[in-house]
Design goal:
This protein has about 140 residues and is mainly alpha-helical. Helices cover about 45% and strands about 0% of the residues.
């Protein structure tokens, strides 16, 4: 599935900072329209410039980054909490687990926005094999 993207639609200047634009949840082409229609659901297209978000496929990237960022501090907190107060296991279930889940969920949307805007900014596309004797079209 190949989606043709018009990166230079008339009147719009694509983002030069995909991190800032993505965290804000804005369209990477006009920086005005919304990227999401729900908490984590991408809108089908930008309501301002009409950019089709069909090119975007962050896959499991946001979840991987969120878990990686949250896991070490959450584990450090759990170990400190256990060593300092010698708490029973059930207390970790009402402190550490909700803290870990909440922090992961809070990071998912900005990370997904960043990855989608980075795909647009760097013109990422699906990889394909180039066989001997063929030329890569770009």
């Amino acid at each position: 599935m190949s989606v043709e993207i018009d990166y230079t639609a008339e009147g719009y200047h694509p983002t030069d900072n995909p991190l800032k634009t993505g965290i804000a949840g804005r369209c990477p082409r006009c920086q005005t329209g919304h990227l999401f229609k729900g908490y984590l659901t991408l809108a089908p297209r930008c309501e301002i410039c009409g950019l089709d978000y069909g090119f975007a496929d962050p896959a499991d990237g946001p979840a991987f980054f969120a878990m990686s960022i949250v896991a070490v501090p959450a584990l450090a907190f759990a170990v400190w909490f256990q060593m300092r107060f010698e708490t029973p296991l059930w207390l970790h279930l009402i402190t550490t687990v909700p803290l870990t889940l909440g922090a992961s969920l809070a990071l998912l949307r900005p990370l997904k926005g960043w990855l989608v805007c980075s795909q647009f900014f760097f013109k990422a596309e699906e990889g394909r094999l180039v066989r001997a004797g063929e030329t890569a079209e770009r």
